[in-house]
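A quick aside before the break. I want you to see a complete sequence-to-structure record at least once, exactly as it would be stored in a machine-readable document. Don't worry about memorizing anything.
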Amino acid sequence: MKHALITAGHKGIGKKVTEQFLKKQYSVTVHFRSDKNKVRELQKEWHQYKDNVQFVEGDITSKADIEHVVAQVMERFGRIDVLINNAGPYVFERKKLIEYTDSEWYEMLEGNLSSVFHFVKAVVPIMKKQQFGRVITYGFQDVEHTPGWMYRAAFSAAKSGLASLTKSLALEVAEYGITANMVCPGDIVGDMKESDIIKARLLEDKETPVGRSGTGEDIARIIEFLCDENSDMITGSIISASGGVDVVHKSKKQAPGR
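That is the input. The structure line, written in tokens, reads:
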């Protein structure tokens, strides 16, 4: 049985990704930061998978916590086939770069970039021994072109760096049967993060060219495909799923008066 480690796999898009892999008969380790009440809910909701899923608490901005999470995976399941870096902080307040506090800036870098570095350092040696592995990171639309993103400078800087990290990693580990790819969700908000495609099609979204909102299931299906053993020709790729929405440049139309 293959094993997937999914950060923040207990909520939002991460929850849909976890469910996708459980349904495909993977065992899964779900990392969470602190929401033990949510974990208790999921232990009931996912009772049928109780032998194949574990929850491990940790702060992804802490190298020690990351190493603890990986150690817990190996202690119980003995392998890691898939690493999905779903967790990543985001500053929802729209502010210019010079308005960020030092702590906000470093949280964006540590949570979205350095955390992946530390997870990769801990997990790739395991995958090399297995001669198989799949690493997934998250970005945003056109991140590979390092676009300017008004009021999201810290987040976009971290994710642009992560795009380069993902592409570089893909080249370095290809000979070991390991792939690394980045998936870029579109404007998936609120309940849609844990929703499915069928439900989304019942709700018209006039701002999305395809006519419906994106969902967590959209992202989960892409990730599942990338992690298939026969998807080894896809590596170092950045795949966007925005439904045609220009996510980055929406901010210019909605810019607050300053």
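Two observations worth writing down. Residues 105 and 154 are 6 Å apart (CA to CA). The mean pLDDT is 95. We'll return to this after the break.
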